[in-house]
Specification:
It contains 8 helices and 18 strands. It has 396 residues and is an alpha+beta fold. It has one domain (68-391): L-amino peptidase D-ALA esterase/amidase (4-Layer Sandwich). The protein has a 6-stranded mixed sheet with strand order 5-3-18-16-13-12. α4 crosses α5. The chain is globular.
Length: 396
């Protein structure tokens, strides 16, 4: 019986887990759960290293190795997330709304092919300190129009920077390139999408996977057409005993592979020419096989937001965003390339009463971002031409 990738035409339901084993391990506390995750990742990695297609058992193990969300970005009180996904083609936008009085914001932009809006305003030397929303969108530069719709929604709700005669919504935005996914490049997020995403935003559980800005996100494009995989939108949060929360949300559209930092193993990315296995872009680069990368500049980009409930200045939020970019480096290989527009926005709501140690917060931000990136791979579902990690080795 031959193992291979199988790409379903429609939505792929989440694979059920072994409930009895889950309950048993969960009752043993965090150490047992960590051991379970590490062992599962090692099992899948061993299969890949041996050149073996993943089995149903190893896929089950991989699902159990997925990092916990910790409540995602909305674990930070006052932040809301909404996504709008187009049905004509896999693309959409994701809106992060801050509390009505805004959140202190910063940004770190390291990719060589960015598509952004209002980044100059986020420079710490500039006047406006807070933003009212962040918009992450597909559709390449066309998708920047989604921010106009979010501005319209905020304007209707009288939210924005007070200039006396009115309030001007402050809405920085970043886009990723997904025009080559789904066969209809003329379909891209519009202002209406940004409006709908803002209207749908809630403080409840965050949708992940093939939604919003992650709908058309793919990874592993260094190998050229036919060897990439599906990724999507992921989120994760870390809460300390004193109530400090650091969280991240990210749309992963990387040119390279997704790496689980806890094991160092590839979980999604470039496939072998036969499409059956993970090739490991790191090995391909070392071998010289990718001296002429097949991915064009600007056709990728990972865009995300890292946030905290700590009280930070604009300088400190910018430093948090810089440190969060290390999460890209841990979980994406290679990251920040000339073909990427990698961007991390930072937000601080200032509701936590405890001390704000930027060293600690930045370290947590990098960890939260890395977890969110890995979740973006695990939460994705296959679309035609782009299998997801949950479909590796599926038997037909």
């Amino acid at each position: 019986m031959r193992h291979h990738f199988s790409v379903p035409a429609g939505p792929h339901p989440r694979r059920p887990r072994a409930a009895a084993l889950e309950d048993s391990l969960s009752s043993r506390g965090p150490q047992a759960r960590l051991a379970r995750a590490s062992g599962a990742a090692a099992l899948l990695a061993a299969a890949i290293c041996l050149g073996m297609p993943a089995t149903r058992a190893s896929l089950h193990a991989a699902a159990n190795a997925e990092p916990p969300s910790g409540g995602g970005l909305t674990a930070i009180a006052g932040l809301k997330v909404g996504s709008y996904t187009l049905t004509e083609r896999p693309t959409g936008c994701t809106v992060i709304l801050t509390p009505p009085d805004g959140a202190v914001a910063g940004v770190d932009q390291r990719g060589g092919a960015p598509g952004t809006r209002e980044l100059g305003l986020l420079n710490p030397i500039n006047t406006v300190q807070k933003v009212n929303a962040i918009v992450l969108s597909g559709g390449s530069a066309f998708g920047l129009d989604a921010a106009s719709g979010t501005m319209k929604w905020l304007d209707e709700h009288h939210i924005g920077y007070d200039v006396g005669i009115t309030r001007v919504p402050i809405v920085p935005s970043a886009i990723l390139f997904d025009l080559n996914v789904g066969g209809k490049p003329s379909i891209r997020p519009t202002a209406d999408c940004g409006y709908r995403a803002a209207a749908a935003a809630t403080g409840g559980p965050v949708q992940e996977g093939n939604v919003g800005a992650g709908a058309g996100a793919t990874v592993g494009k260094l190998g050229g057409p036919g060897r990439a995989m599906k990724a999507g939108l992921g989120t994760a949060a870390i809460t300390l005993p004193d109530g400090l929360v650091v969280a991240a949300i990210v749309a992963v559209n990387a040119v390279g592979d997704i790496i689980d930092p806890t094991t160092g193993r590839v979980v999604a990315g470039v496939r072998t020419p036969d499409g059956l296995h993970l090739a490991d872009a790191r090995k391909l680069i070392l071998s010289g096989a990718l001296m002429r990368p097949r991915s064009k500049s600007g056709e990728n980009t990972t865009i995300g937001v890292v946030a905290t409930n700590a009280k930070l200045t604009k300088d400190e939020v910018t430093k948090m965003a810089e440190m969060a970019s290390d999460g890209y480096g841990r979980a994406i290989s290679p990251a920040h390339t000339p073909a990427d527009g990698d961007t991390v926005f930072g937000l601080a709501t200032g509701t936590h009463a405890g001390p704000a140690n930027v060293l600690v917060i930045g370290a947590l931000a990098a960890d939260a971002m890395a977890r969110a990136i890995v979740r973006a791979a695990y939460e994705a579902t296959s679309i035609p031409g782009y299998p997801a990690v949950r479909d590796l080795g599926k038997v037909k």
